[in-house]
Design goal:
Helices cover about 10% and strands about 50% of the residues. By secondary structure, the protein is mainly beta. Strands 1, 2, 3, 4, 5, 6, 7, 8, 9 and 10 form a ten-stranded mixed beta sheet that branches. A hairpin with a 6-residue loop joins strand 1 and strand 2. About 5% of the residues have low confidence.
């Protein structure tokens, strides 16, 4: 029986001092709040469109529906400023029990400050940025794993 791979995006927003977590969202369990890592994560339709790197730092874009609640949150995040932590986990969808499984595999993560937004009549592109230049930083602001490709071939 083939494995049905599911991927869930988890996003947590924290105040600038990273003391208080203001919002926690997940994108997989539709219209459900789920418990993960001891916290409640509410459903939010969203997409992480990837990361762009440059000498001025990294930027990621979180695509969200244009709703009054999202617009209000964005205004607060920009005034804050807020920090967003995004993590993408992969798991076997055939074993889905309606909540996050133990043993999910982290396939990507990103931490950035909410620095701006753009959008259309139906969506908002929330921009997250890192002031650290990947060229001279001591650690990368982005983490990727080889979980999607497996163990590399050794010749």
């Amino acid at each position: 029986m083939p494995i049905a791979r599911g991927q869930a995006l988890f996003v947590a927003f924290q105040d600038a001092g990273q003391i208080t977590t203001v919002e926690r969202w997940q994108s997989f369990w539709v219209d459900q709040s789920v418990t993960w890592e001891g916290s409640l994560w509410t459903y939010q339709p969203m997409d992480w469109s990837g990361i762009t790197s440059g000498s001025g730092g990294d930027q990621a874009t979180l695509v969200l529906p244009r709703l009054p609640s999202i617009q209000a949150l964005l205004r607060q995040a920009l005034a804050g400023p807020w920090i967003a932590t995004m993590r993408v986990y992969q798991f076997d969808e055939a074993l889905d029990t309606g909540s996050p499984q133990a043993g999910q595999i982290l396939v990507g993560s990103c931490i950035g400050q909410v620095i701006g937004a753009s959008g259309t009549a139906t969506s908002i592109n929330m921009k997250l940025g890192s002031a650290l230049s990947p060229v001279g930083a001591q650690f990368p602001p982005v983490t990727a794993t080889d979980a999607l490709i497996g163990v590399p071939c050794i010749l």
